[in-house]
Amino acid sequence: MLRHVNNPFSSLLLTAVVSLSAGPLRQHHFVNQRKSWTEAQRYCREKYTDLVTINDTQDQNDIEQVTERGNPGDNTNRVWIGLKKTWIWSLDDSKYQYRNWEPGQPQGDGDCAFMNQEGQWHDITCSTSMHFICYNAQRYCRDKHTDLASVRNESENDQIKGIIPSASPKDAWIGLHRLWVWSDNSTSTFTNWKPGEPNLGANKLDICTSIDTHQQKGWIDDYCTELYHFVCYDDKLVLIRQNLTWTGALNYCRNNDMDLVSVFSEDTQRRVENVTASASTPHVWLGLRHSCVVGLWFWVNGQTLCYEQWAAGYGTGEEDCTTTVRSGAIQTGDQRWISLPETNTNNFICIK
């Protein structure tokens, strides 16, 4: 039987039976305006969170229902989603936006990039054989070094240019290639292309993705300048890139009419993993708290742990309560949960 303890978090634990669940983590919004993909992206980021991301069949079904309800009946048969063919670095340095294309490049010759002896970049088909520059062909670099070279600024571009031999061949692969990436910078794993799609191939024009709302409701690659309706999403999870203690993080969320996130299902875990991808700390606080009084973990929204994603050696044994209270965080590497002293400082996730 639980007894009253003079502890600020004991009342939180004892009131668990009256707390409510979090509900859907994302809301989808059909926008009955015709815009280019870039204009639609800007609108979604200003009004909501971003253009919609589709991660599985359930997301796909939800988007189809939203487009059916929102379709104005004006013979609209294409709707933008957030997928775009984007130049990214092999090493996943998506935050580095430096480019040094030769004038007129890329011109649609392929989805990979090489550097010439002058330090300028060209696109070319990825099956072409040529020398390459490693950082520290991709598979070889990852086995022998770190990865194909990323070029973050002009200084690095000059350094790599100096490595390319003056004698033939005068070109070398760098780590820039073009992949399908979502507007929120998450990579595309789930796909739902219509038969024969995507079919635009290598192209110097920007290529984005729309959904065919008639006939077979699959994805189509399309020129980003086309004017279509679109679907935005509003994410209830917010990554705060400030380094606070667990209590500081809890107070921050609640002072802004939110709460630290509680992870009560595999779907919530997946959403949290997507959000933590852009964290600036190796651990990110969750709304997970340990009670030394009763020896168990609980969520700040009052739910007990039914779903768990502990890293090996965490969450199942006794916690060290001699110095400070322990709280739960997710590791940005393997996305597993660990126990940390609540006085550590980390990024954290609030839920609206």
Automatic annotation (TrEMBL):
SUPFAM superfamilies the UniProt entry points to: C-type lectin-like (SSF56436)
| Residues annotated as signal peptide | 1-22
Q: Which Gene3D superfamilies match?
A: Mannose-Binding Protein A, subunit A
Q: Which keywords belong to this entry?
A: Disulfide bond, Receptor, Signal
Q: What residue stretches are annotated with the C-type lectin domain?
A: 28-135, 136-233, 228-351
Task: Tell me the superkingdom of the source.
Answer: Eukaryota
Which PANTHER family does this one have? C-TYPE LECTIN DOMAIN FAMILY 20 MEMBER A-RELATED, C-TYPE LECTIN DOMAIN FAMILY 4 MEMBER K-LIKE-RELATED
Q: What is this protein called?
A: C-type mannose receptor 2
Annotated organism of origin:
Anabarilius grahami (Kanglang fish)
Source species taxonomy? Eukaryota, Metazoa, Chordata, Craniata, Vertebrata
